[in-house]
Structures are given as C-alpha cells and as structure tokens.
Design brief:
By secondary structure, the chain is α+β, with helices and mostly antiparallel strands. It has one domain: Gcn5-related N-acetyltransferase (GNAT) (Aminopeptidase, 3-Layer(aba) Sandwich), CATH 3.40.630. It is 31% helix and 32% strand. It has 5 helices and 7 strands; from the N terminus they run βααβββαβαββα. Strands 1-2-3-4-5-7-6 form a 7-stranded mixed beta sheet, sandwiched between helices. The radius of gyration is 16 Å and the shape is globular. It starts with 9 loop residues before the first strand and ends with a helix.
C-alpha cells in the first residue's frame, strides 16, 4: 500500500534541515508574488529556519509540508494550512512551487492531497485561498482545482509602488469531492 502522502508525481513530507536551500530559492522566485517584498535573509537564516521547522511540533491543523518530486527526490515546493477553525469548519492554505518546476502538475497533485486530508480526514467543510490579482498563474491553478471567486478586496495590498486587489477564493468539501474523487 502506498502512503496517503505519495501521489504519482510528488510526495508531501515534513521539512528537513537540508531543505533550507530550496526555501531560499523559493523566496527569490516568489519575491514579487507575495504581498510584501522582504529584505534578503542570510543563508544561515534559512538554515536556522529549516532546522526549527524540522523540529517543530504540528500546531493542530496548521502545518507546513515540503513537496518532493518523486522522479528526482528534490524539494520543488511547499504547502501549508493556516487559520484552521475546526468549529466553523474552514481553513486557509498556501502553496508555492519553485519557478523552474511550475506547470509540471506538482502543485495540483500536492493541493489535492492536502485538501483530501483536510476534508476527508479532519472533517473541514471549506478551504479558502487569497491570491493577488496579478498572479495569473495562481488564479488559473485555483480555478482549475475548482475554487470559486468569492470576493475581492480592492486596492488591498501595496506592492511595487501601487495598490493591488486581493482575490478571495473558496472551495467546499462536496465541490472538491465531485471534482477530485478518491482514486
């Protein structure tokens, strides 16, 4: 039997101390995709962060996992759950894939595994995502996964000298199940 966390292209796993180089690469790749440009962090800062993540206990239903490509064994991205509210039955999530590994199906497979866990195993009802309006790749990914635009916070984020809309997206457990039935 294959692990729940292993798909055809990727495996989701805990972050290891040696993953620091991947996360440093993702930070450079996503410098203009996030909601704020941060000052550069040192290599030692990434090493310490990855070591801390590797030793961290899971915070309930909020966690971060590395996305490892099965064909190379290399870390290609990460997924995380945030703001999990079991009483309301909703959570937010985030995904990042390195620039050289985008459009290979890694993000879709990783997100489907993550959502299947949160919906089928943890009994959540809704997943929410927030995407900047100019991030067309992320918006297309979310629509492909079945997320629906639920709102837009106009001129919500200031970045690169101007304001941008923040697009609010959501998918319900039953919508996810119809679009992504278990194998």
């Amino acid at each position: 039997m294959t692990s729940f966390w292993t798909g055809t292209r990727v495996r989701l796993r805990g972050i290891e101390p040696e993953d620091w180089t991947g996360f440093m690469r993702f930070a450079v790749d996503e410098e203009r995709l996030g909601d704020a440009v941060q000052p550069p962090r040192s290599a030692e800062g990434y090493r310490a962060w990855a070591k801390e993540q590797a030793a961290a206990e899971t915070d309930g239903d909020c966690f971060r996992l590395a996305i490892e490509a099965l064909d190379t064994g290399e870390i290609v991205g990460a997924v995380s759950t945030n703001h999990a509210d079991p009483q309301a039955g909703r959570f937010e999530y985030g995904v990042t894939v390195g620039a050289g590994d985008r459009r290979k199906g890694y993000a879709v497979e990783a997100v489907v595994m993550l959502l299947r866990f949160m919906f089928a195993e943890r009994r959540y009802h809704k997943c929410e995502a927030r995407v900047l309006d100019y991030n067309q790749g992320s918006l297309a990914l979310h629509h492909r996964l079945g997320f629906v635009e639920e709102g837009r916070l106009r001129d919500h984020v200031f970045l690169a000298g101007r304001h941008h809309d923040l697009v609010l997206l959501g998918i319900l457990a039953d919508e996810f199940d119809r679009l992504h039935p278990p194998a």
